[in-house]
Amino acid sequence: MNRQRFSFINMLPFIILLLIILAIIKIILHYHNLSPLVNLKKTPATIIGYESAGGKGGTLAKFEFNYNKKEYFTTSGADNYVVGEKFLVKFDSIHPWKNQIMLDSPIFLENEKTGVAVGYLDRLINIKFFKRITFIYYIDGKKYEHSYEPGKDIENRYPKFKKGKKYLVKYWLDNPERAIIQPDQPTDLPLE
């Protein structure tokens, strides 16, 4: 028993040193992933599916984007978007795996077939570090609801963007659940 205790006490400095080295490696890797994006580029990224967030119980949206004829994949905590939905991604052109999905920048590509509907802003959650808009729109008598993060400065960019007001909504003809409200296009047209 004393011999086992003695060997553990002798090993304790090595165990502590190993834990310190592992902590330093983790800090370096974390800092490296958070380092500023240099040689910044932007391109569309498409949601291609969802995956489990592990033990956290949530889901992560899996995105794909292309740069220099290569495919890159990344994830984001976005969990209420439509597969096929597109957002801008900003990334380091030298290290494209260092990237950030711009959830406040949903887009349609020029070659995507879209339609226009009338909708209204249903909710605007505006907490210091969290913003989300939810809007409702109608297509052929069917009600749709969609949400996304509008960006930190939406109040400054669109001071008249208010709950309950009607706006034009651009939607994807292949799946009308994918839509973008147009805060710069208020309308008096009736809801369908």
Tell me what the structure shows:
This protein has 192 residues and is of the alpha+beta class. It contains 2 helices and 10 strands; from the N terminus they run H-E-E-E-E-E-E-E-E-H-E-E. The protein has helices spanning 2-34, 154-157; strands at residues 40-52, 59-67, 70-76, 86-92, 99-107, 114-127, 130-139, 142-148, 166-172, 175-186. The strands form 2 sheets. Strands 3-2-1-4-5 form a 5-stranded antiparallel beta sheet, with no helix packed on it. Strands 8-7-6-9-10 form a 5-stranded antiparallel beta sheet, with no helix packed on it. Strand 9 and strand 10 form a beta hairpin. The chain is elongated. The model has no long low-confidence stretch (mean pLDDT 86).
Topology:
Blueprint: H1 2-34, E1 40-52, E2 59-67, E3 70-76, E4 86-92, E5 99-107, E6 114-127, E7 130-139, E8 142-148, H2 154-157, E9 166-172, E10 175-186
Mean pLDDT score, rounded? 86
N- to C-terminal separation? 82 Å
Largest sheet: 5 strands, antiparallel
Biggest β-sheet: strands ordered side by side in the sheet: 3-2-1-4-5
Summarize the model shown:
This protein is α+β, with helices and mostly antiparallel strands. Helix content is 19%, strand content 49%.
